Structure to design on (579 residues):
């Protein structure tokens, strides 16, 4: 594979997913490829409750974040802004709501090509 | 005593959802490995409030019957109990009776006779109003304090049982337990707890296996077997070619959970923050260090759904590049034209109905949250109307029909004809529901909100 410089959070992850957690919550997980990717994603100056509030139009005070270095995972939960299956709910299982998170541009400090083995 | 002297309990979880299917050989393998109990989830709130609100199963009868036939024969042959939770998707009383009817048919057809327990979890509104009055119902975030009218508005309310009513049914001699709404974990934790296994490993194992093979290297290959003992639990896939790894098992705590470390059950909280996951071999994982904190107050979580209105859906589609280049203008014009025409024709003001216009192919799924949207190649325009009655919803959708067929963009001087997907275009969806309860009841006993009936099935051998 050609070496490409990661530009989004999703580029650092082997999976970014979202899912409903009961009828009233959404939860998302970033599974980072390695400890270096985890370091970027777990950096609060880049990704914190305020970032999620801006991306998803929710109140930062309602956002819960879990940083799990043993799994290289950052997990994010927040109350569902639109009631499940209501007239304006377009994603019953909240399964496509990971995309704004995955497409979040990386900070310039993380944009240097990583010394990945070829 | 029967409960003494057991040093481990093996729980077979065939699949994450009754009716989803599993290879029959995986059940034979689970029995060969010494399964002591089979537990399977029959429901979920995952797919929305309709199944509770309408008290209808999501799964089709034939799929549930196929899985139950294999599991009933396995349980009867091995002389081990079968536990089914959240029967009929939502766990309403009708859902329990639906699964019980399927079980009775299978047992009769297979010439089997078993003691079947039905545990009903549907709640009486009047009793809950009393509990509310007594200050014994509390909100869980993000919902606020419960109002009496919210309880009265629900078409169905269930309480999610813990392990206790299931254990009581097993101790009363049930070989098959058909539970109404139960926590996803209670059905798998019940038997280990009944046999004296510690709560931490019992609940943690139950959480890991509640989705069947989801914690394995190939979730489609079938379920898992968890062996719970005094110090922890061991988990392996039922398919010998599939693996559980420490990462896969640990990561399953993330799945559909708000908090991946602490999980509230009716009688306490599972804490896996200190749990250690180690590989025993290339496909078996050992978990130790799970803790369970018994709560001061036993609580039962309520789920309730009510009707929000009646819906009618219409669906047209656009391929014309000019309209697609101005798709947001077109959508704005359509919305205002629908409102105007509805007011003109049936005199309905905007607060008497609502509609959602979804542009599939443009930004239907994420709407304003969508970070990127170029000119689409084609767009499906779904119009979803919600009104207090079905005929009004359909009237609005039919008023919108000529617009969904011929509406141009503001700058066009001719009428395009757009691509309806079906004829007629309108589909009546019936009542639409919403979940309105996310509250717990402080209970005096773990079983007081549930009713159990046990009988030999078929009745006349």
């Amino acid at each position: 594979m050609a070496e490409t410089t990661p530009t989004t959070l999703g580029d650092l992850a082997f999976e970014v997913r979202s899912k409903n957690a009961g009828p009233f919550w959404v939860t998302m997980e970033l599974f980072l490829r390695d400890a270096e990717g985890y370091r970027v994603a777990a950096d609060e100056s880049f990704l914190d409750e305020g970032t999620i509030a801006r991306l998803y139009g929710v109140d930062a005070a309602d956002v819960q974040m879990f940083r799990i270095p043993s799994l290289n995972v950052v997990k994010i939960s927040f109350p569902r802004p639109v009631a499940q299956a209501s007239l304006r709910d377009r994603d019953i299982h909240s399964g496509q709501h990971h995309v704004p998170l995955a497409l979040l541009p990386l900070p310039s400090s993380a944009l240097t090509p990583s010394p990945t083995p070829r | 005593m029967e409960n003494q002297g057991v040093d481990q309990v093996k729980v077979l979880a065939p699949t994450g959802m009754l009716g989803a299917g599993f290879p029959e050989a995986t059940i034979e393998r689970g029995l060969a490995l010494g399964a002591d109990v089979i537990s399977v989830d029959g429901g979920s709130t995952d797919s929305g409030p309709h199944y509770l609100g309408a008290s209808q199963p999501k799964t089709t009868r034939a799929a549930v019957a196929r899985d139950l036939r294999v599991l009933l024969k396995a349980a009867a042959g091995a002389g081990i109990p079968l536990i089914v939770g959240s029967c009929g998707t939502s766990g309403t009383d009708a859902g329990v009776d639906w699964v019980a009817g399927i079980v009775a048919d299978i047992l009769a057809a297979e010439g089997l006779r078993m003691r079947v327990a039905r545990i009903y979890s549907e709640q009486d509104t009047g009793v809950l109003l009393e509990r509310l009055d007594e200050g014994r119902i509390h909100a869980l975030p993000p919902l606020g304090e419960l109002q009496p009218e919210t309880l009265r508005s629900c078409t169905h309310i269930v309480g999610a049982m813990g392990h206790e009513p299931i254990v009581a049914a097993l101790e009363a001699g049930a070989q098959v337990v058909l539970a109404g709404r139960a926590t996803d974990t209670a059905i798998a934790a019940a038997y280990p707890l009944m046999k004296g296994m510690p709560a931490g490993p019992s609940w943690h194992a139950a959480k890991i296996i509640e989705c069947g093979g989801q914690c394995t290297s190939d979730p489609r290959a079938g379920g898992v077997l968890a062996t719970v003992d005094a110090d922890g639990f061991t988990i392996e896939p039922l398919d010998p070619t599939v693996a559980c790894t420490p990462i896969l098992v640990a990561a399953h705590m993330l799945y559909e959970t708000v908090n991946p470390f602490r999980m509230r059950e009716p009688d306490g909280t599972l804490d896996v923050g200190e749990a250690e996951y180690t590989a025993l071999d290339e496909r078996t994982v050992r978990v130790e260090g799970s803790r369970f904190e018994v709560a001061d107050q036993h609580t039962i979580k309520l789920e309730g759904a009510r009707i929000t209105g009646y819906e009618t859906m219409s669906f047209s589609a656009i391929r014309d590049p000019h309209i697609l280049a101005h798709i947001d203008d077109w959508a704005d014009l359509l919305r205002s034209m629908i409102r105007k025409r509805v007011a003109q024709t049936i005199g309905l003001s905007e607060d008497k109905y609502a509609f959602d216009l979804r542009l599939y192919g443009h930004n239907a799924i994420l709407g304003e949250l969508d970070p990127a949207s170029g000119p689409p190649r084609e767009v499906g325009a779904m119009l979803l109307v919600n009104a207090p009655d079905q005929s009004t919803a359909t009237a609005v959708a039919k008023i919108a029909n000529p617009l969904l067929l011929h509406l141009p963009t503001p700058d066009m001087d001719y009428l395009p004809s757009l691509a309806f997907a079906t004829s007629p275009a309108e589909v009546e969806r019936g009542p639409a529901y919403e979940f309105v309860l996310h509250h717990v009841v402080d209970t005096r006993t773990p079983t007081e909100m549930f009713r159990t009936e046990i009988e030999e099935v078929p009745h006349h051998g």
